[in-house]
Please model this.
Amino acid sequence: MTITVKEKGDFKYIDEGQGEVLLLLHGLFGALSNWESVVSKFSANYRVMIPMLPIYDMPIKQAGLEGLVAFLEKFVDELNLNEFIVMGNSLGGHIGLIYTLAHQEKVRGMILTGSSGLFENSMGGSFPRRGSYEYIKERVEYTFYDPKVATKEYVEEVFATTKNIPKCMRIVAIAKSAQRNNMAEEIPNITVPTLLIWGLNDTITPPMVGHEFNRLMPNSELRFIDKCCHAPMMEHPDTFNELLEEWLDKTFQNKQEAA
Model:
């Protein structure tokens, strides 16, 4: 399917389909295209929305979780969204957690996959090193169980980003902000239904992190995907979508029938 990026005010975003809103949040090196299979699958029955997070161009003093959550709050208000489902990968999951904690009246449910917020190895344990294509290629491949998923185009996109000094400064600032922000004490206060989809071979937020989220979140369900690392929706899109569809139908269709 052809996905069109829309603009409204200061926001660029994808808005496909009609119905209940699935609000998708990409990670630090993520892109709108990371969610392509989810958009294709679920836009038939849901309104799938993906804001382009201002990771690379937000004011440097605001480059951190607080600034990104504030951006999300403004996006939700601008688009007049209510009672939606939040889905986030990696840093996007962390942003979703903080937003949901503050706005549980707006969030019906949450899906986290490879989310930060408890523990993570940033880019496999180190911050991006500028100027070395092979180093960036290695780090990008490290986020996938099958290195072939890291296409040449994707590696070149990340490499170009890390060569840009202002963008690189923002990436480092945001990564450090995420590592400092451990939510172990706050997470038990999130009571919305939550699905945790984790790669069994995740090297950045290892399986133990998925188990810890599951233990701390009172209304959560944990599912693993084998031979999968940090971005299940990219590495195993069909399996990811099956798990997601099953959970959405079970969690929200049953509630609608009960009502």
About this structure: The chain has a mean pLDDT of 90. The chain has nine helices and eight strands. The chain has one domain: 5-120+182-258. The longest strand covers residues 107-113.
